[in-house]
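Shipment paperwork, digital attachment
Item: protein structure file
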Amino acid sequence: MAETQEIGGDVASKAQEYPNEGWILAATILVSSMAFIDGSALNVALPVIQTSLNASGAQLLWVINAYLLMLASLILVGGSLGDRLGRRKVFMAGSALFILASLACGISPSIERLIGARVIQGIGGAMMIPGSLAIISASLAPNRRGKGIGTWSAATTLVMVAGPVLGGFLADHGLWRGVFLINLPLGIAALIILATKVPESRDETVKGRLDLGSFLLNVVGLGSLTYGFISAPDLGFSDTRVWGTLTVGIFCLLVFIWWESQVKNPMLPLELFRSRTFSGTNLLTLFLYGALAVMSFFLSLNLIQVQGYSKTQAGLAFLPFVVLLTLLSRWAGGLVDRSGPRLPLILGPTIVGLGFLWTAFTGVTPGPQAYWTTFFPGMTLVGVGMGLVVAPLTTSVMGSVPNHYSGTASGVNNAVSRTAGVLAIAIIGALALILFSNTLQSQASPLHLPPQAQSDLQREAKNLAGAQPPASVGKQNRQAVEKAIKISFTEAFKIVFIVNAVLAFLSALMAFFLVENDYRRSAER
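Attachment content:
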């Protein structure tokens, strides 16, 4: 094992002392790839998981959200622990836990076991995800950081190209468990490189243990808020468990902010938000990444369950998005080093919003043969837009704070992006369920179904596009009900993607008003 090397506060200026830049990028890319490929492949495999494990639409949401719940609750703690205890140490521990949880996911015999394993996977993810960018920022000189992050973005996105295709292929062949098991070789290779080639780093300016009050308030606050929004589509906002946990979450987070302003060594230094760029890029992340999470979830269901795509074809439908993101990320990272991040962070989300608007109005299409004139243009626009965003956004977040806060800054931004995904899927998912149910009721009305059939069909509405015509509708009405289900889902899908477009345009406004082109000034103040 390589001798541990402590990297103190101004680590970036000493990056030239470490000849292992390539190994550092390789390790962080491999670990990040586990999270990225897991998410992108899983979205395509969701319909077959629903069938294989007999899961309801609400349970299917929990396959995604159980992971996101723990990730959002603990990721800020994970970033702070890395700064305090050693970024490599926490990064490796999280990666090992993620690998074991992936194995548990891959062998789960029931939807309940799968959801439980996803909870453990989320805990591991919270420890490992902030570490990638923190280690890169701590080990690369400022003038190489943008290109390094661009390389990381491009490489991890290239891995994402395989995600939907791999997920679709495995799902088509009844091998959806491989979506999780693929993490094992990736993770083991990363752990070997981390143990032998990557230096340790931490924030040497922080003294004392992690404050227990900060830890509890953060976890309970984010966890309660996330649980409340996740449960809302299934239970309704009037349910005591929903509004009660939302109230607890908001209260705890407000107390957390006050607490952090009082303690000597806060887990979240509020001074970071004095930087307009740090605040603006996190607001941009909140809106844009929330919309992207919704896109991945609902587009996969639409392609497979409504448009008649096979799982492999649905995976391939995402290729324009991920290929363009891959090709543009490294170039955009270098652009930040030369010209600053403000312009790409304005143009990128605007183009993404236009892609969402195009996709919103596709309706029920003739199938995969119409892909090039229906979904392809929208995915192309989203890919170009995100290719302009990812590296400049990440570089701005990490560069707008002092180097010794790199783990905390990464934890904050990842907490924002993951919480955005949870909140967006929960809130917009609840909206989609309501729209789908109401539209289905109106679409079925002209069929004059018997009362029992109407009641059975409304109960099926909780499964969204996975709803099946109940036996009580009769053979003569089955085809008409199937058509009503498809139309109802595409109507809900249209509103969902219009909301996505609004979120993307809001993120562009955040960049316009808040992001400074010379983002490093904030870190130097």
